Amino acid sequence: MNDTAHCIPDGWEAVIGLEIHCQLSTQSKIFSGSSTAYGAPPNAQASAIDLGMPGVLPVLNGDALRMAVMFGLAVDAEIAPVCVFARKHYFYPDLPKGYQISQYELPIVANGHLDITVGDDHKRIGITRAHMEEDAGKSLHEGFVNESGIDLNRAGTPLIEIVSEPDLRTPAEAVAYMKKLHQIVVYLGICDGNMQEGSFRCDANVSVRRAGTTAFGTRTETKNVNSFRYVEKAIEYEINRQVEVLESGGSIQQETRLFDPSTGQTRAMRSKEDAHDYRYFPDPDLLPVHCDAQYIEDVRATLPELPVDKRARFERDYGLSTYDATVLTGERPLADFYETMVAEAGGEAKLCANWVITDLLGALNKAGLEITESPVSAAQMAALIQRIGDQTISGKIAKEVFEAMMNGEGDADAVIEAKGLRQITDDSAILAVIDQVIADNPKQLEQYKGGKDRVLGFFVGQVMKATGGKANPDAVNRLLKERLGPPGEA
Description:
Blueprint: E1 12-23, H1 62-74, E2 78-79, E3 82-83, E4 86-89, E5 99-102, E6 109-118, E7 121-134, E8 138-140, E9 149-151, E10 158-164, H2 171-188, E11 200-210, E12 220-225, H3 228-247, E13 255-260, E14 265-271, E15 281-282, E16 289-290, H4 293-300, H5 307-318, H6 322-328, H7 332-345, H8 349-367, H9 378-389, H10 395-406, H11 412-419, H12 427-440, H13 442-449, H14 455-466, H15 473-484
């Protein structure tokens, strides 16, 4: 059993499909002018339209349509020339109209795909559809005794619901797919991707079947999982729970479940509805939406460079390895930081990549900061690279300078001057130190003259120590070899 399938009991196969709700980054809601800003007091951003008051009419937000089309183009999907809004009926306290405006038979996006990599395995995952819809409100339970509160600020917030084909087979594949989608919508600028605030959340459909069979088992849907780790844990638990039920002679009930992060388990919430239970019908208040070829091409022209294309360009233009290019294009702000740094440094693409991946990201991770919160700017990092390049400082001393920069002690030049870290490059000054080191270590000199060439490293270390690491290492090596001659020569 491979590493990605370690959680699946022998003799069984999982079938997984994800429904991902992606909140669109519009300024106003999908059918009203209410703000979508996060964090307002409860019910401060719920208009008469959001509340479903009698006589109000919804009007489609053009930005929401444009963003949905952008997504469809990014996943190589078909954009519907005509799409229709429908009413999806169900009754929950946080759904004030008694129905949700969504899309059913004619969604805006259909038949796309996404390529994922898990370990050494590459796989294409189908995207059945992505449809526009409005979000519901939110039920509040904390701070209430024997009652619940309802906050309708989120009601009417524009979403696209992205539905995968049941092509995923392991929790690891599901997480890889979800991360790839997250990366794309954030790159496109159509979603902030904030999972803690619910901007990007997942419903996981899971069933199991005997290995080698093709018929689908009965599936369950685990709702509103809002972290990659929780999605993996929820699917893993559900796979094992279903197998245990079936192996003990029981049957799986089609139901909606919730994941409890505190226990790592899913629990039943309600029986799972089928499409006919929602009594879909076209919304009579909203006309069909027509997207002609010119509109689609106009939207296509606004697409930014996508992660897969940016990674290929980084490998081609900057000579980076696939690993380095993948890391640097993982987030759009990181890719932008790197490109700015290379431009400001006047090249040195590989050296810049090493410093960003190893030093900067390491320091940010340790401090719990994102790249957008970096205390050191791309221009300041570039200046540090330039000081290595012009031999003002060595690579080793640059580590000390960088640490000071991260601590807010100024840019590279200020730190170098304040700490007296400028590299010694004058041959005569270095030779004076070399002569003293040789004179102070006659035993090692005798060993070198006797043919022990490794002793050269000892002398290099002593010279660097004597100069506080400021001597140019290349010059030290060159001048030592000139002074000492070849090893083994008396």
